[in-house]
Please model this.
Amino acid sequence: MSIAQQRSILFAPFEDQDFDFVTSWVEGDSRHYCPVQLKEVVPETLNPTHFLEAVIGKLHKYVDSNELTVAIKLNRITRFEPADVVLPTSVELAGLWIFGATKPDQSQWGLWGNFMNNSTCGGLAINYP
Model:
């Protein structure tokens, strides 16, 4: 997240109703906070019928979530085309990001988003570690 946003982002694992952790960063003289909900497209060995479209289709349950960001991990070998992502019209989130390993040894990861703002939606390759 810090690499994508080009700023230091801190996080605290704090589970509440609709989020798994909270991020925090400073911009100018202001401190910002953002609750983040993690989702996952599980490996085919766990559920061969579970796809990204199904995870995105369930995001409508987050009502009153205009401050919530959802991050979806692609945890399977698949072809991912960011241009093919279709959001339900009822989804109102602060952000939607998708990430996953792009090499089998997990030495490189991809991060795509923000899908809630098509004008800034893009991808980023990240070497790990």
The radius of gyration is 15 Å. The longest strand covers residues 30-41. Strands lie at 10-12, 21-27, 30-41, 69-74, 95-101, 108-113, 122-127.
